[in-house]
Every structure is written in C-alpha cells, then in structure tokens.
C-alpha cells in the first residue's frame, strides 16, 4: 500500500517542467510513471521511470496510466502555444477524471497568464484573475475546474512561477527567444521593454518546490495555490548579463545584447501560428510583474533558489551552448 501511495503519474514528462518534476520525484524515492505518445512498447523502463504509451487527450489512456497513483502531475500543454481552446480543457478534464478515480493529488504548474493589470505589479495568490488574452481565459477556466474537483475526491496543488529556464527548458522564451540551443552564444535577445523588470523561474527550483509541497500534501487545503518569487530581473538585463559572464568565463567572446525583433513577429504572425500566439503575450514583457511568495515561505520555511550564475552555467551547459571546459577557478556568484 505504501508503494502505491508513492507512485506518481507525470503527464508532459518529455517537456521542460514535466521532465524536471519526473526526475526529481524519482530521485526522491517515488515510483514515476510517465505518459508519452508514440513509442514501440506499451511500457518501457528507462532512466529509472516507467514510460507508458498513451495520449493525454484520450481519457482511457490517462485512466489506465493513473491506476495505483497517488499523484498526477499535469504538466502537459499543446506544442508551440497552438490549439489551446481545443486541447487544454479536455486534457485537464481527463486528469481530473483519473484523479477522482484514484483519489489522487493533482499538481499543476501555474502561469501568470491568468492575471491582468489589475493584479500587477506584485501578485498574491488571492489576486483577481482578469486576463487580457484568450490563453489567459483558458487557464482561468482550467484552474476553476480543478478547484471544483478539489471538493469532489481529489486534492490540487498549483505552483505558479515566472518564465521557465534551465538545462532542459523545452519550449520556453529562454530557449526560443534569448539564445539558441546547441549553438555558441554570440547574441542575447532581450524581449522586454527597456528598464522593465521580468520574473524568471529556474526549472530545478520549481520542481523541487513541487516535490517538497507534495511531502506536505495531507496538511494543505484541498485547493492549494503557491507563488514563487524566482529570479527577479529588475531591469530586464540581469539574465542576459549572467549569460555573458558565464560565456566569458568559458573562454567565449562577449555576446551582443539586442532587442528582440518584435517587428518581425508582427510581419510573420499571419503565416505562423506560434509567432501569432507568442505576440499575444507581449504585454507581459512591457510591464513589471512579480509574485509574492509569502505563503510558500510560511509552509516550507524557504523557497528553493539556485544562485543565478550557478543556474546559468548548468543551463548553458545543458543546452549545448558552451563548447569549452570551464576554468579551474570558476566560482558561481548570484
């Protein structure tokens, strides 16, 4: 019975946050079951996890994969920001059905899309959710469905963080906008308006927070929401400066810093769905938006927080952006 209580199903385990949570749960002693589309076998043991073939859009697949699980990590999203209106809510409904059947806890990586300017600049968990975008309205409805489900057979933990970055960032602004995976860093694009702060969250820190909250899940309210303070980039250049420091430390040349070409996304948006969807979220780069982590500190006593340069070194190494060995005297600093 104890073994069953320590089994978690991760939806979206091939993505950035889902993969990081899956690995950290595994390392913390959990049995991890990861749902993925494709693959040649119904179940495959790999990297210390059980990979199950299935589709998050197929309720029977999710119900079968969740059997015996006490936790379901819902970290699945449509690729490239596409088809949110069609896919996001049916997927979470399947997760809810599985969680009800197992009386499991659902863990959701939350987004800041839920909020509009009336909640800025410092957002608390109880701030009004009046989003400006279609994706934001979908996320509000998603969380509302989870809130209803938390009163009917399952628990929910929402961990809301800023833009993700890390060694395996998946589809993220960091890996798609700031730098290019697999290439030496010669240019860093700055999406934000000059002098405007931006919230970033290091994926291993977010995953660690989720794992620590799961250890306390029985003592939390049925629908528990927590905000992370993450790495606050006060003027929109501090992450770029950290990238530069790490690149130089590894023997590279000073990268050029340049404004992200939003004008190009405007031209291409009619022809490229992903760019059109990214452009819809531009307002988040034009105003400062930080999050109050007081509730998280009250429960955990701390927020997992890797020093900036240490996290940036691991990120650029993991993304294949550093081609030389680090100097012997390298010393990470925040």
Automatic annotation (TrEMBL):
InterPro entries, A to Z: Epimerase_deHydtase, NAD(P)-bd_dom_sf, NAD(P)-dependent_oxidoreduct
Domain NAD-dependent epimerase/dehydratase as annotated: residue spans: 8-221
Entry protein name: NAD-dependent epimerase/dehydratase domain-containing protein
């Amino acid at each position: 019975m104890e073994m069953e209580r320590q089994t978690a199903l991760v939806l979206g385990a091939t993505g950035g946050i889902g993969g990081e949570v899956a690995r950290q749960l595994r390392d913390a002693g959990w049995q991890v079951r990861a749902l993925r589309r494709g693959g040649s076998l119904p179940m495959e043991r790999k990297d210390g996890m059980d990979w199950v073939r299935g589709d998050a859009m197929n309720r029977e697949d999710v119900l079968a994969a969740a059997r015996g699980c006490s936790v379901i990590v819902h970290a699945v999203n449509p690729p490239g920001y596409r088809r949110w209106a069609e896919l996001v809510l049916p997927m979470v409904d399947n997760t809810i059905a599985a969680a009800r059947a197992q009386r499991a806890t659902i863990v959701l990586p939350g987004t800041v899309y839920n909020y509009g300017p009336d909640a800025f600049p410092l957002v608390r968990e109880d701030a009004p959710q009046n989003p400006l975008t279609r994706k934001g309205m979908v996320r509000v409805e998603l969380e509302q469905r989870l809130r209803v489900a938390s009163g009917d057979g399952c628990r929910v933990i929402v961990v809301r963080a800023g833009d993700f970055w890390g060694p395996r960032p998946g589809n993220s602004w960091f890996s798609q906008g700031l730098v290019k995976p697999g290439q030496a860093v010669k240019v860093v694009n700055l999406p934000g308006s000059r002098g405007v702060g931006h919230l970033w969250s290091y994926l291993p820190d977010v995953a660690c927070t989720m794992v620590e909250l799961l250890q306390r899940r029985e003592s939390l309210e049925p629908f528990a929401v927590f905000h992370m303070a993450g790495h606050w980039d006060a003027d929109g250049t501090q992450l770029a400066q950290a990238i530069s420091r790490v690149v130089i430390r590894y023997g590279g040349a000073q990268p050029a810093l340049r404004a992200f070409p939003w004008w190009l996304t405007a031209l291409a948006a009619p022809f490229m769905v992903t760019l059109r969807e990214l452009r819809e979220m531009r307002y988040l780069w034009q105003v400062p938006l930080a999050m109050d982590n007081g509730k998280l500190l009250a429960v955990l006593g701390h927020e997992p927080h890797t020093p900036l340069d240490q996290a940036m070194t691991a990120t650029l190494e993991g993304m294949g952006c550093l081609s030389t060995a680090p100097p012997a005297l390298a010393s990470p600093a925040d």
